[in-house]
Amino acid sequence: MRLKAALDHVERFPDSKLAKVARDFDVPRLRLRRRLEGRGPRNGNPEFHTKLTKAEETALCRYIDRLDNINLAVRKEFVQDTANCILKRHGYNLFPSKVLDANRQASEDVEMLNEYFQKLRTVIEANGIVSEDIWNMDETGFQIGVESATAIEAVSAGGKVIPLFLILSGQMHMSQWYQVKELEGDTVIGTSPTGYSNDRHSLSWLKHFDHHSRKETVGSKRLLLMDGYSSHTTKEFIQYCDDHDIIPFGYPPHSTHLVQPLDVVVFQPYKHYHAKALDLVVRDGVTNITKLEFLALIQGVRSLTFTKTTIQAAFRETVDTTQPCSKRTTFVAVPHACHLETNEQANRSTPSEHEE
């Protein structure tokens, strides 16, 4: 090797000029100088040209694995600064989205959902989750005049719903909001400039969920089904779940319209009753709907929407093993793949009902 020969030459003739030795042995002068100064090659020191230390990369990879284990999509923006290098070095593969023809898309949807339900079943069995402790959370938006509001809702397979967590557009809380007599005392109101949620709201909601769902817990752990929104994958969100016996589990991308109870069943009557309530208010002569009017009617809308019957029907529609989606060729109905039966339902069942 030319560099080794040059180093040997300098060792034998320490008074040699480096520039001449570099020319004679055809090696870069700066590289020769670095070796003489005791600095090793860059490929022997991988942290030399990386933004993260090896320990940091290992921690980041554990975080990626953690998200993958709970079925939350690992997107490049989570590790954007050094994503490509880290993913390549540690053997992760990213598959770009492709435009597929309808038949192939349907086939891949079936495979994706079968894999999802199999993974979900494994998590349920491994953690001893009872059906009453399976929850689904999602956000839905409302229009208040020209402003937006976001409601974060959570329901359980046992037919329960936690109190409202609402985000209104604005910078400050108004005292009048909390004087609306129609609102439940446990309602939480947050604000943001847009009326949309953010990382801070998601963590606050999680604490709200923990407080209220804990009262309804039958087993030792709760399973929280949710979409892969970035606010649900922050370190703080995941850590809080780990510390409070909550197992978060994400839906496959672009599938909530098929497998999410709130999205498939509950939010449709939610919007229907809200529109009906607005119509009655307008008929009474109120043409400018403000936040106060919205707060006055939203609790009544929720009471009509979040009935035990509706909530349990939502879980039956989306989480059931009676007809595995692998047997379907197209999605004419929601793919059923994970049967749920509450203790109350099990006690009511008769042998003849099971035989049917």
What report would you give on this structure?
One of its GO terms (molecular function) is DNA binding. Keywords: Endonuclease, Hydrolase, Nuclease. It comes from Hirsutella rhossiliensis. It holds the Pfam family DDE_1. The chain is α/β, with parallel strands linked by helices. It has 14 helices and six strands. Strands 4-3-2-1-5-6 form a six-stranded mixed sheet. α1 runs antiparallel to α2 and α10 runs antiparallel to α12. The radius of gyration is 29 Å and the shape is elongated.
What is the element layout, followed by pairings?
Layout lengths: L1 H11 L5 H8 L3 H8 L17 H16 L13 H7 L12 H25 L7 E11 L2 E10 L8 E5 L18 E5 L6 H15 L8 E5 L8 H9 L2 E5 L5 H4 L1 H23 L7 H15 L2 H11 L24 H6 L2 H5 L1
Parallel strand pairs: 1-5, 3-4, 5-6
Antiparallel strand pairs: 1-2, 2-3
Question: What's the quick description here?
Answer:
This protein has 356 residues and is an alpha/beta fold. The protein has 14 helices and six strands.
